[in-house]
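Prompt: Have a read of the protein record below and flag anything odd:
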Amino acid sequence: MSDTFKASRDIIVRTENWSEALKFYGSILGLSITSQGKTIVGFETGSFCLYVEKGEAHGPVFDFLVPDIQAAKQKLVAAGCTVIEENPEIPRCYIKDPYGMIFNVEQSAGEK
């Protein structure tokens, strides 16, 4: 099994001003909604999917797909990364690398 990280088209921003953000991205920028949940809405931008999540802000989060999320997490932590947030129900794991970038590690479709 390859442990290659592959970027998805997803970028996630989280904000406490969720309804205002949804109005901005939908009405002001005119982006189309591609998915909608209780606390997250996806917008199509053309080059990437922008997900706006309700909650405490932490800056933009890029998304990487991996075949084995637990192996990837162990590899990243051993390399000096910090786990910021984890949700095994999704599954996802927000990681901060030693250089300040925050990204999500997500299970590739069809894997584990």
